[in-house]
Amino acid sequence: MTEKNYNSQQKEKKAMKKQEKMQKIAEPETFKQEKQETAEVKEVEKKETLDTKQKEKLSKLGQAKEKPRKTKAVINASDIHISTKHSAAICRFIKRKKIPEAIKDLELVARIKRPIPMKGEIPHRRGRMMSGRFPEKAAREFIILLKSLSSNSAYNGLENPIIVEAVANIGSRPFGRHGIRRKRTHIRIVAEERKDIAKTK
Fold it and tell me: Alpha-carbon distance 110 to 112, whole Å?
């Protein structure tokens, strides 16, 4: 005789399974219908509870505090490969202008059709300015920055933003060949939605 024949738990399990099978065979159709109806009712209740939960979530989201509307758009660029002197002159040239106007003016500068006023011993130019130059490389870099600034202002919902702040600072100047220091510049441009600032050319 093996241990399996003496195991009383296995015998009880087998007897329970046989009873369940017999109950399923002997179960009338009325009980089956009742079970189906109860299952359908449970499914409907589950759907209702899910709908109520979703509505509660949506109401909570609607009641959440709205983010405050931004009144300015800012762009910061660090260690750009342009002259700090030229970039400072362009910042003075851009300030208190609308972004699309500033982009158009800098495109003319890049094509050597409009000079930027500068201070110091620099050749004189035609027009209202005394002296000026055509910093093509710096103008192209500023055009890229101004385009990104316009996209930032559109995302923040600013209408007709004006350039309020434009600053150029000396960046890190690494050594090149033969001990030459490379030119690097940090630039910060801020545009705000202001109506009191008049356009100055």
Answer: 5
Q: What is the topology classification, in CATH, of domain 72-192? A: Ribosomal Protein L22; Chain A (3.90.470)
Q: Render pLDDT for 13-64 as a digit per residue (tens, 0 to 9).
A: 777 777 776 665 555 555 566 667 777 777 777 777 777 777 677 666 554 4
Residue 175 CA to its chain's centroid (Å): 36
List CB contacts of 97: < 8 A, sequence separation 6 or more: 105, 162, 163, 199, 200
Assess contact for 117 and 130: CB atoms under 8 A. Answer: yes
- Per the CB < 8 A criterion, the answer to whether 111 and 62 are in contact is no
Backbone angles phi, psi at 132, to 5 degrees: -170, 175
Tell me the two tokens of residue 41: 């009712």
What is d(CA 133, CA 71) in angstroms, rounded to the nearest whole number? Answer: 34
165 vs 167: CA distance, rounded Å: 7
- pLDDT of 147-169, one tens digit each? 999 999 999 888 889 999 999 99
